[in-house]
Structure formats: C-alpha cells, structure tokens
C-alpha cells in the first residue's frame, strides 16, 4: 500500500467527504473552497468551525493548501493525485460516447484521416489539447535519438526514411545516464541505414551473443585452472570473477588477454543496454495520468496529461490518445473519454483488413 492509499484508508468519513468536496469544487470552478460553502453541501450538519479544523488537518497532511491567508482551500498536487487514484468516480456520458463514435467512423476509413478526426474530436469534447500517437511503424529508419526526461523516464525519437517521425516514452533501465543514451544512439545510427527497428533488435541480440562467446573462449583457460569463475552465469548481471593478480602472474597469464576480456565485457554491457533500450520502446500500459511536476514535459506549464494506449488484434500496443489540460482538469469526465476513445480506435484498427 502506497502512502496515499494509507492516508486515505486512515481518514474518517467526515475528513474524506471534506477532502472530496474541496477537490470537486476546485476542479469545477478553479476557485478556493471555503468552510461556509461546505456547510451547505455536507451529508451531515456540521459547523463551519468544525470544517475548518478538518481542513487544517488535511493541510497538515499536505493534501490541501490555502493560496491566501483568508481564502478557502485548494488541493495540492499530492491531493490531486490521491483524489485521482482513490476517490475519482469516472463515468462516460451518452453525449460524449456518441461524439467519440462519430469521430472514429468505420473500419474502412483511412487511418490517417481517422486519427485527425479523433484528435479534433478530443479537443472539441474536452476543451483541451489532444494528443494522438499513430500506430507504430515497421519501416526503414533514418535516425534514432534517446532523450532523458527524468531518472525514470526517457524519450526515443525515430525518424523514418520517408520523413515520418515517431516519439515514444519509456522507462529506462536504472542508472542510465544521458551520456550513455547518447552513446547508444550514436552506435545505432552507425547501423540504422535502411534497417527497421526489428532489424536493429536482431543485430544487437547477435552482437551480445558474439561478445559473450568471445569472452568464453578467452576465459576458458582461466576457468579450467581455477583462476576465474562465472558469477550469475547467463543472467543480465553475470560477471567473470578473476582471482588474485599474483596467482595470475605465477601462472604466466598474459596481461593482454585479461585486458581484452575487460574490454569485451565493457562492450557486452553497452550492447546489452542498447538491446534493452530497443525492447523498452515497444512497451506501455494502462491509462496514465500525469499531474503537474510529475511529468517533466508539462511541469513548467502546470498542465496535466491523461493518456491511454490502444492495441491491435494481437493485443500489441500500437499507439496512444490523450488530452493535455490544466491540473484542475475534470478527471471524472476526461479519463473515461480518453479510455473509451483508445478502446474504440483499437477495435477499428483490428477490423477486417487491418
């Protein structure tokens, strides 16, 4: 259970209702919500003083804040996140459903035209900026670039030979630095001409296997003599543990061979990282809601992003749709709109001939 879920479970009914009504009031009006306003809407009859005490407790927990000394309260980013994760009641209205269905059209339509209509419809329905990522392409690539957005988020930019550009966000392996990502991109760009993403994945898989085999050949004598041993053999974290250097000198082991093994290991690690980068560009999951500074792409503008991937007939994620708007987005309405749009686009792309 995360901290938000724990806090929510420990709140009593009154605190939970005050919190929910403050957030809903703020999302609806964009204005702070005061204690006197809540006395008219609370389920139980309580005084403004009692509500103010509850608000102070919620403020102490970091869920509410007062923009001015005499004003009411508004939710913090942590409060918005807890509301979205634990209290959001999301329902899709009939009018929104009909408008989405009309925008998608039939499965016989051109995919590009359908995506244009979906983007326009999402903007019109939600009054926000729409985000539409078209189905991933399997075509020759001209250039590839990895961009670090945060310690746990990166962007891969794929420029295809026909000029088409795709941007995909992924979670990089732990510990990867921006310089490591630039190095990976440089190596891939030396190989990329006329090759697809699948081609590159195959090349890197073969490179990893070749480096591992070279190390095996060079280390064979050391292992036979008991001077070295594999740790976690065959796993991603495998290492060749070489025993004391004095023993190696006594055995007359060639120092150049040891340096060659070390160099091959460095190359093996780089190629494994690159192979993992390529694999991660194919991954994604669920409806994601990024609020304010949670998303480095939108932190400076104080915006939120609600995005959902869609799948083809093979249940493979091929694209995504989303909405960008202010942090006081009407999440209860926007989330089901985005989710339903993604499901509908996925069904259309999985239709006959897709």
TrEMBL record:
State any single GO MF term: DNA binding
Keyword annotations for this protein, in alphabetical order, are: Repressor, Stress response, Transcription, Transcription regulation
The record's Gene Ontology biological-process terms are: negative regulation of DNA-templated transcription
What family does this belong to?
Belongs to the HrcA family.
PANTHER family, from UniProt?
HEAT-INDUCIBLE TRANSCRIPTION REPRESSOR HRCA (PTHR34824)
Q: What does this protein do?
A: Negative regulator of class I heat shock genes (grpE-dnaK-dnaJ and groELS operons). Prevents heat-shock induction of these operons.
Can you name this protein?
Heat-inducible transcription repressor HrcA
* Protein species of origin: Jannaschia pohangensis
């Amino acid at each position: 259970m995360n901290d938000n879920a724990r806090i929510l479970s420990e709140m009593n009914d009154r605190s939970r209702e005050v919190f929910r009504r403050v957030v809903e009031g703020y999302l609806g009006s964009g204005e702070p919500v005061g204690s006197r306003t809540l006395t008219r809407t609370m389920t139980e009859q309580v005084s403004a003083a009692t509500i103010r005490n509850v608000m102070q407790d919620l403020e102490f927990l970091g869920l509410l804040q007062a923009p001015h000394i005499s004003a009411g309260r508004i939710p913090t980013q942590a409060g918005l996140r807890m509301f979205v994760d634990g209290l959001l009641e999301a329902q899709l209205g009939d009018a929104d459903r009909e408008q989405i269905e009309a925008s998608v059209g039939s499965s016989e339509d051109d995919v590009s035209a359908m995506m244009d209509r979906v983007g326009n419809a999402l903007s019109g329905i939600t009054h926000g900026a729409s985000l539409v990522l078209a189905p991933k392409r399997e075509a020759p690539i001209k250039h590839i670039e990895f961009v670090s957005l945060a310690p746990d988020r990166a962007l891969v930019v794929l420029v295809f030979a026909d000029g088409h550009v795709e941007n995909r966000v992924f979670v990089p392996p732990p510990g990867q630095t921006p310089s490591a990502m630039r190095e990976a991109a440089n190596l891939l760009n030396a190989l990329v001409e006329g090759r697809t993403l699948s081609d590159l994945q195959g090349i890197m898989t073969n490179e990893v296997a070749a480096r591992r085999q070279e190390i095996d050949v060079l280390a064979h004598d050391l292992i036979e003599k008991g001077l070295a041993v594999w740790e976690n053999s065959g796993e991603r974290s495998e290492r060749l543990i070489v025993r004391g250097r004095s023993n190696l000198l006594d055995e007359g082991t060639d120092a150049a061979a040891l340096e060659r093994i070390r160099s091959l290991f460095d190359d093996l690690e780089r190629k494994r990282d690159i192979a993992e980068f390529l694999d991660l560009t194919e991954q994604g999951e669920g409806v994601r809601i990024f609020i304010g500074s949670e998303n480095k792409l939108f932190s400076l503008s104080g915006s939120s992003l609600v995005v959902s991937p869609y799948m083809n007939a093979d249940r493979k994620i091929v694209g995504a749709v989303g909405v960008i708007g202010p942090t006081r987005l009407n999440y209860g309405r926007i989330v089901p709109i985005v989710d339903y749009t993604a499901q509908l686009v996925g069904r259309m792309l999985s239709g006959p001939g897709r």
